[in-house]
Amino acid sequence: MLPSPRERTSPPRAVKEGVVDFSPVQLIIVLVIVLLVFGAKRLPELGRNLGAGAREFKDGITGHHDDDDDADGEAISGPPKREDEKVG
């Protein structure tokens, strides 16, 4: 026999395999532990390095390269300037 609507609790959540569900309290605990382990002075450096690594990984996967050098090793600066134009 099915329980009455008053006896029912919230329906069980379907948890997909490989999906992690963090509550805000768990995230705060992890951040406090990271702060204690690395210290306040190293956190900005750690964040920059993590961001740079993620950016390089993304660029490597998508095939985008942030190289401004051509095959000769000279920087590409736009169209060549005509000698009769005044610069400045």
Describe the protein in words.
By secondary structure, the chain is mainly α. It is built from two helices and no strands. The radius of gyration is 27 Å and the shape is elongated. The termini are far apart. The model has no long low-confidence stretch (mean pLDDT 76).
Note the main attributes of this structure.
single chain, 88 residues, mainly alpha, elongated
Q: What is the element layout, followed by pairings?
A:
Layout: H1 24-38, H2 43-62
- Assembly level: single chain
Residues in helices, as a percent range: 25-40%
Order of helices and strands: HH
Residue-averaged pLDDT: 76
Proportion of β residues? under 5%
Largest sheet features: none
Shape, principal axes of CA atoms: elongated
Radius of gyration: 27 Å
Q: Given the structure, what is the number of helices?
A: 2
Uncertain runs: none
What's the total number of strands?
0
- SSE-based structural type: mainly alpha
How widely separated are the two ends? 88 Å
